[in-house]
Amino acid sequence: MNSRKLTVGCRVRYVSHGTPPRQDGSQAFEPAMRAAVVTEVGSADVVGLMVMNPAGLFFHSLALGGVPYDGTGRLPGTWHWPETDEESSVFTVPEAGSGDEGAAP
Fold this sequence. Notes:
Blueprint lengths: L10 E5 L17 E9 L5 E7 L2 E5 L17 E3 L25
């Protein structure tokens, strides 16, 4: 894993499983990268996640096995850090003097 600190609230990426393969090996929906937020931190880089899908939220809790880390960012059913070096928090606060202080969220 990289040097980022893994804590509740961190923004990460989740690779979905997609739909089960058909007899011909194709899938109606291929695995896809989804936005996620860490809801629990377990051991060995296994976390609980809230995954944001286009059709709604999905929760993977530690009690149900959690989600393992995959540094390649390719394995379905795993999480990884965003591909950017930006801070991975869910919310940001505008800097003083940026003109966004009074903007509606």
